[in-house]
Amino acid sequence: MVNRPRSVILAACMSAAIGFTQTGTITPSSMLDGTRAPQVEAPKPVLSAETRGDIFMARKMYREAIEAFSEGSPKDAVLRNKIGIANHQMMQLNAAKKYYEQAVKLKPNYSEAINNLGTVYYATKSYRRAVSQYKKALKLAPDSASIHSNLGTAYFARNQIELATAEFRTALKLDPNVFEHHSSYGVMLQERSVQDRAKYHYWMAALYAQEGRSDLALQYLRKALEEGYKERKKLPEDPAFASMRDLPEFKELIAMEPRVL
């Protein structure tokens, strides 16, 4: 038996491992050319009709959102409501109303759709019907700050100031920032339709002042003055702003002549 060096034995083993034949060639099944084995790509997730519609809504591409939502089931109340919202954003109120009503028909306890139907009535100045819809929605969702604020705005439009103020206070207790972040489409859409914006912003300023939130009170008061609030001479003596009379910002605001927008 011939004793071979250890290194020779190892080399022979390695040659066999990588597929060398006795003739020194490399078999096709063991070629090491540096390429990777083919990788099977994972299938890309297919976005649902609702998700695609939501993306378009976020981009304010409302027509595209409607097309996307419409690809979903016509018996999906959420999609019907969202199609209504997209139409509402484009102020296509008749179409919005139709889809909100479809959503409610599919899901009678759908408080969001009932609320949104109220915003259509509000936009068309059917304030009594708006109040009725908001009350109906609140029976289903009594802790909804946005619906309380919408009901308050509808009362305000009917000049029922005490009822409006009570609803605004309830909304603020439920969500201290309800009027600032506009978490609900209904809130945003309704505020856009406020007729006497100067008076509305004045009452909001008074409400925030009485709640001790002087920063927001000043902000809304400035809006009211810029929009032509007619009773600015009474502001220094208005009891609603008693806690703010000594603030330099309040004095400056009262003294200046803001540009009416």
Q: Major sheet, described briefly?
A: none
Radius of gyration: 33 Å
Percent of residues in β-strands: under 5%
Class by helix and strand content? mainly alpha
Number of strands: 0
| Mean pLDDT over the residues | 81
Number of helices: 14
Shape: elongated
Share of residues in helices? 55-70%
Unreliably modeled segments: 6-36
Distance between the termini: 108 Å
Order of helical and strand elements: HHHHHHHHHHHHHH
Please describe the structure with a list of short key phrases separated by commas or semicolons.
261 residues; mainly alpha; 14 helices; 0% strand
Concise structural overview:
The chain has 14 helices and no strands. With 261 residues, it is mostly helical.
